Amino acid sequence: MRVIFRCDPHLKGHLPEPLAARAALPDWLRQMPSTAHSETHGGDIRTVKQCPPFVDAMTHGFVFTLPCDVHVRNGVFSWDWSLPQPAARMHPRAPLSFHVPAQVEGTPFHADDRVIVKFNSFWTVELPDGWSLFAMPPANRTDLPFQALSGLVDADRYHDVGILFPAIWTQPDFEGVLARGTPVVQCFPVQREPLEYEFQAFNAEETAAYDALGRRLLDDKGIYRKQYRAPRSRTPGK
Questions:
Q1: I want to staple 57 with a disulfide (CB 3.0 to 4.6 A). Which of 6, 85, 139, 183 is the partner?
Q2: Cα separation of 136 and 64, whole Å?
Q3: How far apart (Å, rounded) are the C-alpha atoms in residues 189 and 159?
Q4: What is the DSSP string of 82-150?
């Protein structure tokens, strides 16, 4: 599938490009052991590093990243980022802005003292007809001090401006630097087509297949990865 990213002509070369999600995996995943001792099992067991669905969720689609370092101290966000004047007069120049808490009043995200940041996007996204862009928090990244709100944008129609990504600041005591390149949101195309639901009971053949695969999953811990996991394509240079 062809995904077209565009940016302001005056900012080309000054912005980090969206990354294939596999290129933004956290250090903790790369460094964690593949096995760990379990007192419950009385021996070593495989960690989530060997769980294809866990890892595939983190490598699916692409991520938008923070375009510059953002310093956080005493609840104040600051940055030192010099950009040329964009050609588009309505174009943002700050890496983030803010929502007032009242905008999520009545939701589980609301608190009178909770900060709601809005990560500005410096790239537009165009998808083929019939496809929308699903944006979500970077998968399995509760180590980040914010949680992006999930959203679905019809990017086959809406692609003249960048998408803004609101996020709840989840660590009010955080102080430090959010580094340039920190993944802000994870995105992937989804096709807009109605789903048809059908509910059935296993027949005899399906019952036997369930038991057979269940037994193989116990006997061969890598059966899903070796025989059922679909090949993943790679984006050149990403």
A1: 139
A2: 11
A3: 14
A4: --PPPSSTT---SSEEEE-GGGGTTSTT--TT--EEEEPPSSEEE--TTEEEEEESPTT-TTSSEEEPP
- With contact defined as beta carbons under 8 Å apart, do 149 and 109 qualify? yes
Per-residue pLDDT at 177: 97
The answer to whether residue 61 scores a pLDDT higher than 80 is yes
Structure tokens at 174: 């955080």
Closest to 121 measured CA to CA, from 59, 58, 62: 62
| pLDDT, tens digit (0-9, with 9 covering 90-100), for 159-180 | 999 999 999 999 988 999 999 9
Q: What is the mean pLDDT of the chain?
A: 93
Count how many Cα atoms sit within 13 Å of the Cα of residue 49 in the half-sphere of its side chain: 15
What pLDDT is recorded for position 99? 83
Place of tokens 């165009």: 126
d(CA 57, CA 140): 8
Contacts of 36 (CB under 8 A, 6+ apart): 44, 45, 47
- What's the pTM? 0.91
The mean per-residue pLDDT over the stretch 195-216 comes to: 97
Which pLDDT score, from 0 to 100, does residue 235 have?
A: 54
